[in-house]
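Aggregate trends can hide what the representation actually does to any particular protein. This step matters because it turns folding into a mapping between discrete strings. For completeness, the protein is quoted in full, as a sequence line and a line of structure tokens:
=====
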Amino acid sequence: MIALPIVGVSAADLTFRSGELTVEQQLTRKLGGADARLDSSHMGTAIYQEPTGPGYAPVGGYDTYSPSKGGGADPDSLTKAVPQGAQSLKDSRAYAKIHTAHGVLGIDFRELDVRSPLTAGLITIDRGRLPEGAGEVIATNAFLEHSGRFVGSSVTPRGGTASYKIVGAYELPSDLGKDEIIAPPETLIGPLDTALQASGANGVRAQDSYLVKVGGDGFTWNMVKEANTKGVTVLSRAVMLDPPADSEVPLYQQQPKEQFELSGSTRATELAVLATVVGLAMLEICLLAGPAFAVGARRSRRQLGLVGANGGDRRHIRSIVLSGGLVIGAAAAVIGTAIGVALTIGLRPLLEEFLGKRFGGFEVRPLELAAIALLAIVTGLLSAIVPAFTASRQTVLASLTGRRGVRRANRILPVLGLLAVAGGAAIALGGVASGMGSTVVAGGSAIAELGIVALTPVLVGLCGRLGRWLPLSPRLALRDAVRNRGRTAPAVAAVLAAVAGTVAVATYEHSRDLQNRHEYVASYPYGSGMVTVNDNADHKDVPAVREALAKEFPLAVRADVDRIVVGRPGCDGYSTEQDCGRAELITPKEQRCPLYEAPNGPASFTTEQAWELRNDWRCVEARFGKANATVVADEKLLTALAVTDPGAVSALKAGRAVSFDRRNVKDDKVTIRLITDEEKAQSTGARNEEPPGEDKVFAAYQVPEGVSGYGLKVVLPPDTAKKAGLTTAAFGSYFTLDGTATTEQRQRLDGTFDQIGVDAGVEIEVGYQGNNDLVLLILTVFAGLVTIGAAGIATGLAQADAEADLKTLAAVGAAPRVRRTLSGFQCAVVALMGVVLGSAAGVLPAVGLRLLERRDLERLYENGIAMGHVGSEGPGAYVPIAVPWETLGALIVLVPLGAGLLAALVTRSGGALARRAAG
């Protein structure tokens, strides 16, 4: 019982410390054999950077920074930042898709001369060899596993014309799960980009960095600052190992250093939470182990009586029992630590895979392991304190004859418990009222819970009054529990603590789940969905995707939708590449929200004006959003969207557009602008001017208020789009299911997509799906196991105490099953009392945290209204507090019932008749 937590804690400590890399180890994995790595900040201007962190900012701060003034990043900034005479190595990366044995997979493509000494330590070759020239690559073990490929097989990038042979497998020591391939420089990314652009698809852009070796003192801080003037960030080995003083860091002179560091209050909160968790864990162990020590002391009472008969006093009795706790704690420390070390060594490969990185070494910190071992010793000693004092109070005669004697109840502990309950509740409620934070609420709740633990003996005594209405066996079990509170109370308290934590988390999660359900916004009508290709370059594969959907899914309606194309059909939206453009739905100026049309945005208005505008229909924010909000489709789309308005159906059939947002309709018309120069459009947009382009005006029908387009704004009939000279490209289909789509059907559809070689996604609206069922189940099982364990310990002690009663029952003719029935009820009584008290105690912290969240959300909402950021007609704050009655029912009914049945099953029904000692 004590050793098991020590196994987990020691193994966790070893795993954490072994996975915690030194600065030198981190630099080796990031820099290899180089002195520095140079990356572009993409800001197009001089920057200041942190010496040892990733933070940086433009010179002068973000308040004065304008991307347009920077003129864009200099493509040669990296090469210009390399010091003269230094050795450099280009490291290029790009994200693209590659054909696998299962279909297509998005991975990182990398060009790097891995034969260079500068790359030593960046990768670890597992098998095979390094690539020697064009057409050869090496791949990570993760990619080989995920793709179904192997060393010796060939792979082809999607859209590429060349295949590459995998000649070796490697791993990234700090990212074991990464899908990546490496090719020699200029053999992979460039040819793929050329092939993609030749086919009309978007190319791939490489992100370059440079590994630099300067020798001597390395890449010094002065060199770093010089590179910063060119907009380049630097990770320097010399600077990381010997950082400059804060006074020498320009970034800290421009902005406070605290902005780039974890605040001290956050660290204090983390330490407080850790101390609370450790303290409650020790309390739980003591409460569970205490009755076990009491069992041992009770069984050894004759030996302890002999010690007293031979001149030993109470101090000797206490020392003997405490020494037993000390020995057991020490044994648990040694055994638990040894097993923890052995498990960490034996499971090291699995632990590294789980963490996703290789250990820097097997790091053993003796002081930390000694502290963990000391924790076990202290826990064993604390667990034996109550049994030691209980044993020392027995007279020698009572110990030798087996008599129990009369024990007086402790009057101080209940008073302290009552004060703790009142004080903890006051702290928790005060934290809610004053908004002091969740830490105060949790701390107050923990104090109140400890108070209830201290009150457990009194509460157990009060439960004894129910015995007069119970049958024989449960009445005897309850009477025995009340008479022997010394063994009953710790077990009940252990159950109480575990159940209280479970109920608190369950109540909080259940309440959060109700809130999420209330806030959930459906993406489509229930039972409907959409299939789309995730890359515009795949528009030629859409017909095959649609056919696969119709083949695998039971469809009631399938509505094919196209998008408007300006330029090459494979261009992404807002792409600035050559021959790329976009179609933009134009909102008339007088129907645009003034908050965003003013020169300074919302800051141009007073709070009252902003508040009024937030309630204006022009400024109401949409609850949906779609990448392609203007589509070309027929009336089937309205059926898939559950639009039953006959006017909308008639409008599409008559060749008119259908609008779902009245801001875009003026004089029963909508305007779509074809923008061919995206860079010019973005520059005019920055000046709050209209983007240049050709306007297409269409007659439109506005659907009535309350009819949702689920993110769509305008639907154009295909014939109308064709007559207007618009070019379209297929991108997906909306659909409504005739029934449901099974997991097998979805898997077959995904397999068909893989065979086609297309990256397509399917969405189906199934309503809100809560994700806390598994959490509640795990919590219930945990509380049940703790309850059964604690009740079982108490039952074992009760059987040791109740032998005389059982002998009396057998002597007066009680049936043999009474022994088994009594044992079951003894276990059930302990479990039931602990569960009921724990359920009551666990509600307080959950209610406190939810009230705090409600207060914060209401305050945020009120501030938003006062500052004009939120309209008064908004949904408001909704933070419900709900008890998970299913979980409580399982704890209160099923767990005690299961504990009682289990105890009854493992108890022998027969017992030999024997003489009962008087007393």
About this structure: The chain has a mean pLDDT of 81. The longest helix spans residues 817-866.
